[in-house]
Fold each of these.
Amino acid sequence: MALNYKQYTIIILLILTVTSTTFFYYYSNTLDYKVEYTYEESKEFYNSGYELNMRTDNYYFIQKLIELDPTFIQSLNLVSPYPSEYYLNDPSYKLINRNLNLDDFTLYRKDNVSIYNDSSKYDNSYYKTDNKTILSSPHLYRDSRYKIPETREDYFEIGSPWTDVVYKAFLCKETGYDEEDFKRLLSVGEGKGNYPDTHALLGLLILEEFECYFEEKIREEKDNLIENIVNALERDNQVDDEYIERVLMLYWSNRDHLVKDKWIKKIIDSRNEDDLGWGEKIEGKSCPHSTGMAMLTLKYYLLEDSDKENSLFVRSGGKRIFTS
């Protein structure tokens, strides 16, 4: 018996339903789907409306995410205790505005410093500004009770998330850069692919951007540090802030082909499910530094090759991101 039009329609709809269901079943079990779902869901971390002690590095992560994903700004509901001038007092704001004028900035080399591979040099041993050492304050994520820096010198004294060799790279145009500075940058590396190596690599990427040193030398040292970082990713099983930073550095170094799916999956699996962020909890909230890096890493993974802009620097300029 011949089928009528209605019966044909029902059969076709059944076939389409089975096909789409099967496709979704398989796609939902792919890493692409898991990355996309995790990335979109984790935008909620930035929509909580709490007061975020937004250091310049965390501020930068959000600006870079907006550049890569213009819809990201719609997810933001953040309050910062810092005035906008806070960011303009920091040389690392060049990540957002590479033309920031800092001609009056002072940064001096410390004399009689031994140059050798020693990770203790990671803690700001090489430079000073107006007789004050550049200090890191790694726990200044959300404590709005902390004094807000009023001057550049105050900022270095109480709130800098960067190491001094990285600041020297940011200021290479204003303060000059020579072989001695390059040695100091490389000497913070320890060869184990940990924070000292990622920060040394960060310094090289900044020098590369500003064309402050020999291209061939930078490329050679980048390759060495990247090899250390890849080895560390293969070696370590614990996913923490340092682990995420290693993967992100590979993207910023345009080494996407070295990023392995298993590393991305580990990052996804390490998310804090209660607030959809990453990293060690501080005052009950996930770490904005770890979260920003994880979100950027997932976004880079999702981008098509033709859409990728892996540059460390924000090319589109900063956006206003705070509700008050």
Amino acid sequence: MARFRGVKIYYQTITEESSRNGDFDKTGEWDEISCDTVLEVMDVFQGYNSVEPSSSQFHKGIWYTTIDPEKDDAYYRKGVEKYYTLHLKGFDEEEERAVYRALFPTRANPVRKRNPVKTEKFYYYINQDERGEFYADIRDEKDHTIVEIDTEYAQFLSDEGVRLHDIRSVWAYFGALGDIPKNGVLLKGN
């Protein structure tokens, strides 16, 4: 049997009574979503809006909890708050780190007072996107191109799940590959 690779989602509900007791009303498994790539994981996370990590520092096995309760019928009629925790399963440490970095770029690269790390800026330029032709590049602060994306490469990236007009998606992909260093940030160039 193949090992599960994806996101396991659990839920916790809080009622007024359980809140007074300092506990959850109910907890349990909610869903399992298979994911092959970090970008597919990011798509799952987008469906859960804002999340917070279980730790302020990355470590293997970190999980994520929704910040705001789900606004469903039970919330509006009975005041039941439902939160979700999302756990990555079957990913190696570098893949988990790529998810953490994509969600929390400033936390993933903390600046320490004694040894500040200079954040490197990179710029994403979409130079052509019309009539089936695409050309973009990523440049460093000195305007040197470090990645070129032509029409053929753009098709490959799209097949991999990279959304070429979404800077976070581009950053997550090339950051995971190491083209953008750990202390790097990707900004729109045009």
Amino acid sequence: MCPLKDLMIKGNLSKTARQVAAASAGPGSVGSGESSTLRMNRTWQKWSVICLILVAYTVFRVAAIPADPMYSGGFCHDCSYLSIVGKNLHEGKGFVLDSLWLVFLQPASLPMPYHNANPLFPMLIAGLMASGLDAVRAGFLISALSSTALVLALEDSAGIRKQIGRAHA
């Protein structure tokens, strides 16, 4: 046995001496370039599987958009409201609503100004309508893609937290 390994077993080596002993132990030992390559390959394989699952999920969500989405269980009065505002944006009318079933708002007249505080969704609908989709299908497509975007954002957030944790360690 190597004298450096004997000292390692007894625990009488400094950190630098342990690194030298590990490097001199040969290609099959822990800490060699070969094991880090295998570790990288396993990480790559895990991420490949996760990415394939995410792509399959996204394709399924897009393919599952109903043929007539206006009459599906996923289309409600809020969806209609946002679709109308997105359609009006696409047509150049601005953030206006042509119809309103919510009687409690009692608008003085219609069309009325858009009163929702979240304009991004109607803006995305208007943007997708430029590709030839109708407002309802554009809304369903945004929903399908945003769930995948959320998973990617959460993963990125976790990756950033890991990087910050390593910097403080």
Amino acid sequence: MESLNNKIFKRRSSETFPSVYFTLISIIQGVGLAILVTKTFEYITTDNLTEHWIRYFPYSIISFFILILVVYEYTWFIGVFRWTPKIWDTAIPFFLGAIEISPMFFLTNPQNWWLLMAFFAIMGALAFYNSYYHCIPSNFGSNNTAYLRTKNTLKKDIIISLIVTLICSSSFILLLLIGPSLIVEIPFSLLFVTLIMFMIYQEERFWVALHKDFAPTEY
């Protein structure tokens, strides 16, 4: 058994970081998926809706894509970063998960759904900034290309999250002023989905490029 010293303590702290993080994310996203499926079937099978259930189904689809995006973001995140976690690092998945799940309780209430999504997007920007802050050259050894690539990707993620915050806030304000309106909801939903797809595409390109930065002949 290794005797605990400063070097071993730091190594153990950083080594437990990814497994603990991904366990938390897996549990939270699993709960989110269960709630999403339950709430979706709930409004599909109810007779209390004033409009056809298809009217609200896009909100379920968007929420599902967000679950996928969050898991994918954390998948590459734990593959890249190691540091000794602080209380903020532990709290982020819980705050992000709670705010991510909360819109799922308002799938048939577009106004509240957009408002809560705005909070989720701003929380996402803060989470990305936390990773951006911890993204330092020493994480990548002598591979400065990989460092700059990761730093730039996180910067783009922060910008996209802020744009999504603006989109969701604008949709909420318009619905608050004029009431439920497909004229508002359809274009904003399409724009939202486009940004989600772009983000997934960007992360996929980044992940492939990062593999090539470290193992150009293996990926």
